[in-house]
Q: What sequence folds into this?
């Protein structure tokens, strides 16, 4: 069984909360998830990065959640011309730059995929408790 929810947001800081709320509503409509908090935080970080780094000039970004049988796949698409996701070295004194470190710790797998045309999708995958594998089966 596969469920899909997606929504486009304008690239303004105020929409990060709306993206997070959208993800929570999708999860709730599918019966909830034991990893709601992890997923909510990762959506916030990825949406924030799309607003700050990936969608210049007020363009839009897309949040997509796909629930597969054994995992939940989260994607945030942006229109950045650059493909790389920079993860700065962790520093206890830094005031920023921890977002992708948090994402790495909370999800089971993640990556970046170039989109047709321009832009990229940063994706994360969360295994469901009933998964029979140590790796996510929904990675692109």
A:
């Amino acid at each position: 069984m596969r469920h899909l929810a997606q929504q486009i947001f304008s690239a303004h800081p105020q929409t990060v909360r709306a993206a997070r709320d959208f993800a929570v509503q999708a999860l709730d409509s599918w019966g909830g998830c034991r990893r709601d908090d992890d997923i909510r935080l990762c959506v916030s970080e990825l949406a924030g990065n799309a607003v700050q780094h990936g969608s210049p000039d007020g363009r839009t970004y897309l949040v997509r959640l796909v629930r597969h049988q054994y995992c939940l796949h989260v994607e945030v698409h942006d229109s950045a011309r650059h493909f790389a996701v920079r993860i700065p070295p962790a520093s206890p004194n830094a005031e920023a730059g921890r977002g992708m470190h948090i994402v790495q710790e909370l999800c089971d797998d993640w990556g970046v995929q170039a989109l047709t045309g321009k832009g990229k999708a940063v994706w994360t995958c969360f295994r469901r408790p009933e998964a029979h594998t140590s790796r996510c089966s929904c990675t692109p």
